[in-house]
Automatic annotation (TrEMBL):
It is an enzyme of class 2 (transferase). GO terms for molecular function: ATP binding; kinase activity; magnesium ion binding; potassium ion binding; pyruvate kinase activity. This is Pyruvate kinase. Its cofactor is K(+). The keyword Cell cycle does not apply. PANTHER family: PYRUVATE KINASE. It comes from the Eukaryota. The keyword Nuclease does not apply. It comes from Gossypium raimondii (Peruvian cotton). Residues 388-508 form the Pyruvate kinase C-terminal domain. Keywords: ATP-binding, Glycolysis, Kinase, Magnesium, Metal-binding, Nucleotide-binding, Pyruvate, Transferase.
Amino acid sequence: MHSTHLLLEEPIRMASILEPSKASFFPAMTKIVGTLGPKSRSIEVISGCLKAGMSVARFDFSWHDPAYHQETLENLKAAVKLTKKLCAVMLDTVGAEMQVVNKSEKAISLEADAIVVLTPDEGQEASSELLPINFDGLSKAVKKGDTIFIGQYLFTGSETTSVWLEVSEVKGDDVVCVIKNSATLAGSLFTLHGSQIRIGLPTLTDKDKEVISTWGVQNKIDFLSLSYTRHAEDVRQLGDLYQTQIFAKIENIEGLNHFDEILQEADGIILSRGNLGIDLPPEKVFLFQKAALYKCNMAGKPAVVTRVVDSMTDNLRPTRAEATDVANAVLDGSDAILLGAETLRGLYPVETISTVGKICAEAEKVFNQDMYFKKTVKYVGEPMTHLESIASSAVRAAIKVKASVIICFTSSGRAARLIAKYRPTMPVLSVVIPRLKTNQLKWSFSGAFEARQSLIVRGLFPMLADPRHPAESTSASNESVLKVALDHGKAAGVIKSHDRVVVCQKVGDASVVKIIELED
């Protein structure tokens, strides 16, 4: 398995490019987050998405009500049982999002060089001359010459479905704009984004707080995607969300300026390239991606990249630029790729996930692990912590002996995430050992959260062990759990006879890394 990995610096043989991609149980080490919506909420389509490689389902609350999303979630649970594929749940907040209110849902045609007025009077009917918006402070935030972008759900980048406006004057609470390109806005929801304009809306709206405390808590969500995160304080103000991990979504210059402190506070980062692509000059977008992914990688926190195959919303194949973009996100160090409109309202949700997975798998073959490993070790410095030392040693050993898989016993998931941080070229099977907990009234096992939360980390594949086997128990019980893990690996096709496997586990107070060779 290891021998298929090339280094990007080596000349790539043309023959290897012409070889057909091999299907495997783990479609790619890089994870795929799919947004569930009108085109992807039936049990049948969700099952297809899970089989194609989706490991996190995103629920976007910037449209539709909790009852609608609950119905979708019940279908997801049914699909998980049907396919026997684990899937985590991500709740995406609305945040400081400006929206055009189009109650009639009639298509609105906008002509280049014509005038359109943005008004906070939501009672008005949306038309080609007047667009009501949900924010009354826009006239105070903009000045003549500023640019504003409007599009459905997210800016598709297509000049016919999203529009670019230039502010010509401010009249009281209204903003008068010149339309820069002809477009047709269809549907009930258009997002509005002001390029490099500070918007005085709260990061967490009252609606967001209500959704988190009701829908989020009841459904024990695994991840919360905090839209328009601008400061570390935005993450802190969420308080204790039990075991839910908070992913800060960086969408504008303000979030970019406070990136380091946000990264310190959040459990992971989502690079919202749609909005960032508007706030940043085009020539700077790739620089931000590379710098942000490097920082996330070194901190050992998952980084998610969005907006990769927009054209697949309506087409079966991505453009050449998009296919290259997905591969570069993997080579830059992304843990996961997030699909938005492509799966939410796209015509080919399953095919999109499958295509992105195949591109990720091919890019992983040429990922320069050796250089990445040295860079990470250098960044961590000396003396290393006990866990960091064990994790890096396990990866080094696995690469030296050409192990087919690393098996890590963990109860909190931290040890497995640290191993994944060093980006081994082989899958890391994270055996999550449930812990018995009590609140003085009843006993319960932890572990399901930890298992699902590794579904967004590159290279980590969780397996929930039998709770009767504690993580730090006798060698006999550890051996029986190891046998179950090895059988799982064999069934998945990642372990074969005579393969070497690196095992990382705790024995008493000591952490042990051992290499085992499988017999027939």
